[in-house]
Amino acid sequence: MSVDPGNANARDAHAPAARLASYEAAPGEVGRVLLLYSGGLDTSVMLKWIQEEYGAEVVALTVDLGQPGEDFEVVRGKALQLGAVDAVLVDARERFAYEYVLPAIKANALYGGGYPLFTALGRPLIASIAVEQAQRFGCDAIAHGCTGKGNDQVRIESTILALAPDMKIVAPVRGWQMGREEEIRYARERGIPIKGGTEAPPYSIDDNLWGRSSEGGKIEDLAEPTPDDAITLVTDPRQAPDEPEDVTIEFERGCPVAIDGERLGLVELLERATAIGARHGVGIVDHIEDRVVGLKVRDLYEVPAAAILLCAHRELEKLVCTGLQNRLKPVLEEQWSWLVYAGLWYEPLLADLNAYMDSVNEQVTGSVTVRLYKGSVRAVARKSENALYDPALATFGESGGLFSQHAAPGFIELFTLQSRMAHRLRAERGQRGGGSER
Description:
The chain has 15 helices and 14 strands. It is elongated and about 85 Å long. The chain is α/β, with parallel strands linked by helices.
């Protein structure tokens, strides 16, 4: 690498960091590296940096998960221009939708009560494709652009280590200590085109079929409301249509299959739900989040498709599941969401939980109509042949069929027996029970 010998700080900033794990690759250990390549500043600098610091060939891999507005052929051409021996584009939208987003829908997945895990779901898929392509091209290492403060390093590396234990990993951004100014200087010295110019973008953005995130910049000021310029996918609810819109989602065994009577493949359905929800200002989430690495951060999410489909799916589950199922499943959903957030896609417990989610969703067939209005989404109608609901039984003042009101007193007497006994014993000993003593 060409560095001013008098500039020790530059040399230290650019050099690979000392290894702390056995799977980290050192210069001289690898001859060909597969790089997860986005075409942005970080990965473009990485492409050149790996060639110089490791003396290795680079194969660039770009994965399409439905990122809107991305010209992937331009990205591929840039990688080849920067010296990649090959540049591969993999369209993984169908695989992402059915193998990753669909299990999340069945699990009603929300981390921390608000984040529908779209980035967390995408990373293990990207990493698994990286392993496939690395083995195809005879690479002995995989490189990514994750920082040491984020979750993505955990998600990507855990997947690689699970699928290819002998594969080495290169994580330059985590070790080279270059700030944006140094990266820009490095890029200029080597003729690397800088996407979007030299001005730092106001926010760090990630998006795919299931949502969009923004972090950094003004978002980090917790004392300030959501910055208006950070919302780019979803209409400001204040500017959304003044009339509500009812949208009917049909499900078959937990999978959304139609919107307003039109059957669609899952990729197209997610795109349609995104467009409808975004128009009505639905799916803006301002979220305080606990990262796997211990940090607490503020993230801004725009998730119109998730807001619509998860609302509809939860309501349909309520209708077709038993009361006990409806009590247990949210507990398991929380565990499912944490495992995915933490990048443990190949943890056996997750497979066990998926088996349960699939079992429950065998009954989740029917339709739910949701009403969208200025940022809100709520269910207004439900229908299913598997509904555990009988209008005749639900009518007040009537008896018959499976339900006899005359049996209610005996049920109450038995159902409350232990609670009444416990209350009496505590009262005799002068202890307060759970209810009022007045």
